[in-house]
Amino acid sequence: QDSGDFFLSDLQRYSLNVPSWCRGPIGPRHRVIWESSKAPLPRHRTSSRHSLYFDNSHDAQYAFRMKRFLSTTTAYAVVFLFLLCSTSLYSQEYYRFDLLASNLRIPWEIEFAPDGRIWCTERDGFVIAINPQTGERTTLLDLSQRVRSKDEAGLLGFAFHPEFPDSAYFYTSFTEIRGDEFYQVLARYRYVADTLIDEMILDEWGPVSLYHAGSRLAFGADGHLYVSTGDATEETVAQDWNSRKGKVLRYTSNGEIPVDNPLPENPVWAIGFRNPQGLVVTRDGAVYTAEHGPAIEDEVNKVDRSRNYGWPFVNGPCDDEEEMLFCNTFNVKGPFFSTGESTLGICALTEYNGTKYPGWENALLLSSLKGGRIHVLKRSANGESTTSVKDYFARCVGRIRDFAVSPDGTLHICTSNRDGRSSPGFPRETDDRLYRITRTTERPEFAEQQHPDTIFANVGESIVHSINLRNTGGAVLSIVNWWSTGAVSDDFYVHLYDGQQWVRNNGTNAFPLVVEPKTEGIQSGELALQAGNINVTRRYNIVISTEFPDVDWAEDTITILGEVGKPVSYVTSWTNNGEYGALTTGYALRSGRTSVFSVAGETGNIPRGETSTVTVTYTADDVSARDYAELAIVGNVPDRRRLIINAEAVLSTVDEKVSASPLVRPQPVTDVATFVLPDNIEAHHLTIVDALGRTVNTATLHEDAGTVIVDATQFTPGAYVAVFEGRHSLRVPFVVARQR
């Protein structure tokens, strides 16, 4: 108001709540701050310089600087609201993802070689070279018969000799199978005519687990090789100077111990790490790691000689009494950056020295797996802390495993959507993939909903339903805000949304909702999604219905055994036992490898009491293939009424499959699953994965565990596999009974 009684003279900083109708890309978690360079501001005078900026708790991302301001309070309000709600606030930075290669086997590290190809380690044990222009790939090394590719183990990081190809040495770390145990191996190879030969083992340690391997490699400005290692789930060994686990190690290029290492004949350079999957040496010679926290505090650390980084006694900054005592006693250095009370699964780390992406110059680029982001970290002058952090591309292409920067400064990334931990909407049929990211003058196009999303659920149920977001434009689309209206606005909420969601150019993405009906019948509402880099809001009609047919499959689970290359068909059926007719338009198959399955079945109206037949065909494409899928009826039938398919390659379909007594009871599982392990199986770790290969739970087992009991009420109905790991490996498929 312009009463003359209120003016900007008493405070230097003002924190305001932004009304939802003009938040734009700022989002609900941001503040707007007015900061004056002169304080106080005298009434009816102007200031020579002011700043209006938006603070998202990391840095001022949107800045407007004005030389002069009118002195009346009315003018201040008009200018403020105009800037805040103007479409100019929408980011004009447009990016696109170009697909260069697909069907990669869980890529772990990528790097440009001098010949312009991108070298890549695949966790299954292959080193390949990819031509980024044609997608052609060449296998340089095959360790698949030696490497244990599982969970976080396999063929992992690599580095070129600093003078490659003149000194044509290639260094890598992998998890090797040795009888019933696993060892982590650091090896060097020589590159000759598209082949890696002359293996030289530089170091090895073990036994190790299949988790927390670390294993990034980088050469320093001193010409020495730095290697990050995880604690292999043995937490306290991270504090042991005589163990290779949970450390940053330092070697000469020949695998010897440098004379200036902290301890003689010891490769340990720094201690106290949990699972550092990122490592970079910057142009000024500084060493940084990126590591996973347990449930909070992922960390980026600036690594100095002889320093302790705290794990497992310190997680994140030294910010409580016990941690501060440990830090002061044991030479602990706090993190350069940490994620606070959550984790993002931070991974790759590189320094960006190009000019292709304004604002990224001389920043550290950090990838996240769970967050599916690229984080741009600006460093302080001494490199000891961050001055700003900006995030991009949340869940646009799934889990981002690594970066490679081309000689001209163009960023390339690879995904990790088939590692068993993918987010909703992934993995896609041709994952994993290699992308090039460029700026573009094209714009995203937020497509309208093609038809209402109808969700079938009973009162009291809680199910997950994904809205299909479509971007038909030539640049990636960002989603920055959402709200719901209508009769069912309290019956659903957005799942896994933390302020950002991106959709690839000319692509789609899943936007998951949790649906919990509170009223019987058919009701509707609306979900509004606001774009952040274009001035568009799309509204999605949501229909929640408790009126639907109740179908029963003749079998909860079917098993198909097939020889490689020979299609095998299985005929089954389902019956409509509900009060309503089943209007079916087809069938949807959900699997990490849908290409090996095909489905044919009746469509149309299936009245109450009638039965419909379905044929599932499986064609194994590898002698070691083991596939899992869920089959859902498309129509007015809830997709959680699914048929579970277990499929496996065999040498001959006439071979008798030998099986001991049932390993899980009951089958299907309702509340509690009881696993009885054979006497000759020794396992110490359990992982539960769903039909798409995503990890849903893990547990550590007692050494003498012969019977394992799992609470199945925490799982949604569907197909799962219990994977027991240790000296032996055992996979036990099971089904969680559908709810009625």
Written account of the structure:
The chain is mostly beta strands and 740 residues long. The protein contains two helices and 52 strands. The strands form 13 sheets. A five-stranded mixed beta sheet has the order 29-36-35-31-33, with no helix packed on it. Strands 38-45-44-40-42 form a five-stranded mixed beta sheet, with no helix packed on it. The protein has a four-stranded antiparallel beta sheet with strand order 1-2-3-4, with no helix packed on it.
Bin the strand percentage.
Answer: over 45%
Please tally the β strands and state the result: 52
* Helical fraction: under 10%
User: Roughly how many Å apart are the termini?
Assistant: 59 Å
Backbone CA Rg: 28 Å
- Major sheet, described briefly? 5 strands, mixed
Shape: globular
Helix/strand structural class = mainly beta
Biggest sheet strand order reads 29-36-35-31-33
Our count of helices gives 2
Q: Which segments are poorly predicted (pLDDT under 50) over 5 or more consecutive residues? A: 1-90, 653-661
Mean pLDDT: 82
Can you summarize this structure?
This protein has 740 residues and is an all-beta fold. Mean pLDDT is 82; it is low at 1-90 and 653-661.
Name a few traits of the molecule:
740 residues; mainly beta; 5-stranded mixed sheet; 52 strands; globular
